[in-house]
Design a protein that fits this description.
Number of helices: 4
Structural class: alpha+beta
Distance between the termini: 14 Å
Order of helices and strands: EHEEEHEEEHEEH
Shape: elongated
Largest sheet: 5 strands, antiparallel
Length: 164
Protein backbone atom coordinates (compact mmCIF):
# COMPACT_ATOMS: atom_id res chain seq x y z
CA UNK A 1 0.00 0.00 0.00
CA UNK A 2 1.37 3.39 -0.97
CA UNK A 3 0.27 6.28 1.18
CA UNK A 4 0.33 9.93 0.25
CA UNK A 5 2.58 11.93 2.57
CA UNK A 6 0.59 13.95 5.05
CA UNK A 7 1.55 17.33 6.44
CA UNK A 8 1.90 17.43 10.21
CA UNK A 9 -0.46 19.74 12.07
CA UNK A 10 0.88 22.07 14.78
CA UNK A 11 -0.87 20.15 17.54
CA UNK A 12 -2.93 17.05 18.12
CA UNK A 13 -6.69 16.92 18.50
CA UNK A 14 -7.46 17.44 22.22
CA UNK A 15 -8.85 13.90 22.62
CA UNK A 16 -5.85 12.18 21.01
CA UNK A 17 -2.73 10.92 22.78
CA UNK A 18 0.68 10.22 21.29
CA UNK A 19 3.87 9.05 22.98
CA UNK A 20 7.33 7.66 22.30
CA UNK A 21 9.47 6.30 25.09
CA UNK A 22 11.58 3.59 26.67
CA UNK A 23 9.02 2.26 29.16
CA UNK A 24 7.02 -0.88 28.38
CA UNK A 25 3.70 -0.15 26.66
CA UNK A 26 0.53 -1.01 28.56
CA UNK A 27 -2.55 -2.35 26.78
CA UNK A 28 -4.99 -1.23 29.47
CA UNK A 29 -3.58 2.31 29.55
CA UNK A 30 -3.89 2.75 25.78
CA UNK A 31 -7.38 1.22 25.78
CA UNK A 32 -8.53 3.62 28.52
CA UNK A 33 -7.14 6.60 26.59
CA UNK A 34 -9.26 5.62 23.55
CA UNK A 35 -12.42 4.72 25.46
CA UNK A 36 -15.44 7.01 25.51
CA UNK A 37 -19.12 6.56 26.47
CA UNK A 38 -20.06 7.31 22.84
CA UNK A 39 -17.92 4.51 21.46
CA UNK A 40 -19.42 1.31 20.15
CA UNK A 41 -15.89 0.07 19.46
CA UNK A 42 -12.31 0.52 20.52
CA UNK A 43 -10.03 -1.22 18.06
CA UNK A 44 -6.44 -1.83 19.12
CA UNK A 45 -3.37 -2.97 17.23
CA UNK A 46 -0.36 -4.32 19.09
CA UNK A 47 2.94 -4.79 17.30
CA UNK A 48 5.25 -7.24 19.06
CA UNK A 49 8.81 -8.42 18.64
CA UNK A 50 8.80 -11.85 16.99
CA UNK A 51 11.47 -14.51 17.19
CA UNK A 52 12.17 -14.97 13.46
CA UNK A 53 12.63 -12.78 10.39
CA UNK A 54 13.44 -14.16 6.96
CA UNK A 55 14.30 -17.53 8.51
CA UNK A 56 16.78 -15.99 10.96
CA UNK A 57 16.47 -16.36 14.73
CA UNK A 58 15.96 -12.87 16.15
CA UNK A 59 17.66 -12.19 19.49
CA UNK A 60 16.15 -8.73 20.10
CA UNK A 61 15.35 -5.43 18.38
CA UNK A 62 16.51 -1.88 18.93
CA UNK A 63 14.24 1.01 17.97
CA UNK A 64 15.30 4.60 17.41
CA UNK A 65 13.17 7.58 16.47
CA UNK A 66 13.46 11.23 15.66
CA UNK A 67 10.93 11.91 18.39
CA UNK A 68 9.76 15.49 17.69
CA UNK A 69 9.02 14.72 14.05
CA UNK A 70 7.51 11.30 14.85
CA UNK A 71 5.03 12.88 17.27
CA UNK A 72 4.10 15.41 14.56
CA UNK A 73 3.51 12.54 12.15
CA UNK A 74 1.34 10.78 14.76
CA UNK A 75 -0.72 13.98 15.15
CA UNK A 76 -1.05 14.30 11.38
CA UNK A 77 -2.26 10.69 11.22
CA UNK A 78 -4.88 11.58 13.83
CA UNK A 79 -6.09 14.57 11.82
CA UNK A 80 -6.16 12.52 8.60
CA UNK A 81 -8.21 9.81 10.36
CA UNK A 82 -10.67 12.46 11.52
CA UNK A 83 -10.99 13.80 7.96
CA UNK A 84 -11.81 10.29 6.64
CA UNK A 85 -13.89 9.00 9.56
CA UNK A 86 -15.58 11.98 11.21
CA UNK A 87 -17.15 9.94 14.04
CA UNK A 88 -13.80 8.88 15.53
CA UNK A 89 -13.64 9.99 19.17
CA UNK A 90 -10.02 9.16 20.07
CA UNK A 91 -6.76 8.19 18.34
CA UNK A 92 -3.93 6.84 20.49
CA UNK A 93 -0.47 5.95 19.18
CA UNK A 94 2.33 4.90 21.54
CA UNK A 95 5.67 3.62 20.23
CA UNK A 96 8.53 2.22 22.22
CA UNK A 97 12.21 2.84 21.55
CA UNK A 98 15.35 1.20 22.88
CA UNK A 99 16.13 -2.50 23.23
CA UNK A 100 13.10 -4.82 23.09
CA UNK A 101 13.08 -8.55 23.78
CA UNK A 102 11.08 -11.22 21.96
CA UNK A 103 7.39 -10.86 22.82
CA UNK A 104 7.60 -7.25 23.99
CA UNK A 105 5.22 -4.67 22.52
CA UNK A 106 6.85 -2.13 20.21
CA UNK A 107 3.76 -0.17 19.15
CA UNK A 108 0.19 0.20 20.40
CA UNK A 109 -2.54 1.97 18.47
CA UNK A 110 -6.15 2.41 19.50
CA UNK A 111 -9.06 4.08 17.76
CA UNK A 112 -12.35 4.78 19.50
CA UNK A 113 -15.46 5.21 17.37
CA UNK A 114 -19.22 4.65 17.57
CA UNK A 115 -19.02 1.94 14.87
CA UNK A 116 -16.59 -0.98 14.51
CA UNK A 117 -16.16 -0.76 10.73
CA UNK A 118 -14.77 2.75 10.88
CA UNK A 119 -12.68 1.91 13.95
CA UNK A 120 -11.06 -1.07 12.17
CA UNK A 121 -10.41 0.94 8.99
CA UNK A 122 -8.97 3.89 10.91
CA UNK A 123 -6.70 1.65 12.99
CA UNK A 124 -5.35 -0.07 9.88
CA UNK A 125 -4.80 3.31 8.22
CA UNK A 126 -2.91 4.50 11.31
CA UNK A 127 -0.42 1.61 11.40
CA UNK A 128 0.10 1.56 7.63
CA UNK A 129 0.71 5.32 7.53
CA UNK A 130 2.96 5.23 10.61
CA UNK A 131 5.15 2.55 9.01
CA UNK A 132 5.58 4.62 5.86
CA UNK A 133 5.96 8.10 7.28
CA UNK A 134 7.21 8.14 10.88
CA UNK A 135 10.96 8.61 11.34
CA UNK A 136 11.36 5.40 13.34
CA UNK A 137 13.94 2.72 12.62
CA UNK A 138 14.60 -0.70 14.00
CA UNK A 139 17.79 -2.70 14.19
CA UNK A 140 17.31 -6.46 14.18
CA UNK A 141 19.84 -8.53 16.07
CA UNK A 142 19.84 -12.15 14.96
CA UNK A 143 21.94 -15.29 14.90
CA UNK A 144 23.48 -16.37 11.59
CA UNK A 145 23.46 -20.03 10.52
CA UNK A 146 27.09 -20.32 11.68
CA UNK A 147 26.18 -19.04 15.17
CA UNK A 148 27.56 -15.52 14.75
CA UNK A 149 25.47 -12.58 15.97
CA UNK A 150 24.71 -9.97 13.30
CA UNK A 151 22.44 -6.97 12.92
CA UNK A 152 20.59 -5.09 10.22
CA UNK A 153 18.85 -1.70 10.30
CA UNK A 154 15.34 -1.84 8.89
CA UNK A 155 13.27 1.25 8.15
CA UNK A 156 9.74 0.68 9.38
CA UNK A 157 8.58 2.12 6.05
CA UNK A 158 10.14 -0.89 4.32
CA UNK A 159 8.32 -3.32 6.58
CA UNK A 160 5.21 -3.77 4.46
CA UNK A 161 7.27 -5.37 1.70
CA UNK A 162 9.12 -7.50 4.28
CA UNK A 163 6.02 -8.27 6.43
CA UNK A 164 7.62 -6.85 9.59
Amino acid sequence: MTTTPIIAQKSAHPADRFAIGFAPLLLDEVYQLADDPGNGAVVMMSGTVRDRTDGKAVEYLEYQAYEPMAIQVFAAIGWEIRSKWADVTHVVIHHRIGKLKIGEISVLLAVGCPHRGEAFAACQFAIDTLKHQAPIWKKEWYVEADGRTASTWVSIGACEELDC
